[in-house]
Amino acid sequence: MPGLAIIGAQWGDEGKGKITDYLGEDADLIVRFQGGNNAGHTIVVDGKVFKLHGLPSGVVRKGKLAVIGNGVVVNLEELAEEIEQVKEAGGSIEGLRISDRAHLIMNYHKKLDGAEEKYRGKNVVGTTKKGIGPAYQDKIARIGFRAGDLLEDDLLKEKIGFIIPYKKDMLDMMGAEPCQCTTESLYAKMAGWRDMIGDCICDTSVLVNDALDENRNVIFEGAQGAMLDIDHGTYPYVTSSATCGGGVCTGSGVAPNRIDRMLGVVKAYTTRVGEGPFVTELAEEDEKKLQAKGGEFGVTTGRGRRCGWLDLVVVEHAQRMCGFTSIVMTKIDVLDDVPELPVCVAYEIDGTEYRHFPASISKLNRAKPVYETLRGWKGTDDTESLVKGGYDNLPGEMREYIEFTERYLKTPVDIVSVGPGRDQTIDRRNGDWWS
Ligand code: IMP
User: Fold this and answer.
1) Other Cβ atoms within 10 Å of 429 Cβ, number
2) How far is CA 305 from each of CA 12, 288, 367, rounded to the nearest angstrom?
């Protein structure tokens, strides 16, 4: 049973990086299938902290292939900096593979990202300004650079020739910072990228499918979260890629029947970055407390994340879009010593109770959370003993919080994370997931 996908069930920052790294121990390939360096993964290995954005988490594990699939948009300039970071920490990128079909994020995309936000006025999305949206726009408009273009000199020159004047006009029209490059300087820069990672570029769909055929273990690592999906998220306050179950297939070039397990990563409370509706959001003072306790500051932008109670209407939506076979609950320790824990089980909108997450932003803005309040538990500083004691020895109230979630979602919570380290994990898995 070798194909396992890991997807965030909220608005991103659920702790997918840690879980990918934890399960990655048994994986041969780790594949990213959407998003770009708007994502941020913090991984702690032997006390060393890695902050990754564009590189897949698996890259810090020796002997594994870390694959950037066709559905990802790649900023090669910024990837080079991350590669340096990994090398400085004694790691290697030997196992890195980049799809020849993956699109490239160019500097003009970053400039356009900022300019587009200006036009949205009070409806700003609050993007990471990494150029993600404009890069996907070019993909759909069929004028994007793909990684494979770097390997075809004539095609590359031809594309640069027509794209540069077009983008210069566009930047000018949008009142964005102008692009100083010429066709020659851009060609020189892109030839440099070819020298840097040309050997890593290949047909990763063949690579991944071959690995699955050989019964090797493959993890598909999601970025952002289900609620930021371009179709199923809180549009327009979303990212520009397919973050849900279907995106695994289109973004990595595998068929749906190759995914054997879908893991939904659920933070024990809710956070979101940027603008958009958030029904269980806390008032400022309480939000600040949870933000500080949970270290809820963006890895990519440094922005303080908005915080709120666990919203199971959100997670049920993600469950329907992804078909989770297991839930991983993360950061439950952050809720230690909170006497009462409200969990949102429905929305009340204009006098009607909603059990399913609505599409309308104005409805969501009027939605009031319907809570069931669970009892909190007393925390401990001795995480080692907590983990050693296993699930059955966790405080009863904590188990009830977990089991309430299981009942609501009709899905088992198979892994519980009680801290950032690999060893701060309580594993309830039944049998070997890879056999
Ligand atoms: P973009 O992906 O930069 O276009 O930003 C679109 C929205 O997605 C903004 O609200 C961002 O804050 C949010 N977003 C993008 N990447 C992440 C992430 O990795 N975690 C949380 N939010 C994200």
Assistant:
1) 11
2) 10, 9, 21
Structure confidence by residue, pLDDT tens digits, 130-187: 999 999 999 999 999 999 999 999 999 999 999 999 999 999 999 999 999 999 999 9
User: In a mutational test of the pocket of ligand 1, which residue from 13, 241, 273, 306 has the highest number of ligand atoms less than 8 Å from its CB?
Assistant: 273
DSSP codes of every residue in 296-327: -B-TTT-PBPEEE--BHHHHHHHHHHH--SEE
CATH of 3-93+203-427, one of 3.40.50.800, 1.10.10.10, 3.90.170.10, 3.40.50.2300: 3.90.170.10
**In the predicted model, is pLDDT for residue 1 greater than 60?**
no
Tell me, in angstroms, the distance from the centre of ligand 1 to residue 24's CA.
24
Residue nearest to atom 19 of ligand 1 (CA): 39
Q: How confident is the model over 227-271, as pLDDT tens digits?
A: 999 999 999 999 999 999 999 999 999 999 999 999 999 999 999
Give residue 354 CA to ligand 1 midpoint distance, Å.
26
Distance between CA 289 and CA 307 in Å, rounded? Answer: 9
Q: For 299-333, how does the pLDDT look when each residue is reduced to its tens digit (9 = 90+)?
A: 777 889 999 999 999 999 999 999 999 999 999 99
CATH superfamily of 103-198: Adenylosuccinate Synthetase, subunit A, domain 2 (1.10.300.10)
Where are the domains positioned within the chain?
Answer: 3-93+203-427, 103-198
Ligand 1 probe mutation, 128, 139, 237, most atoms within 8 A of CB: 128
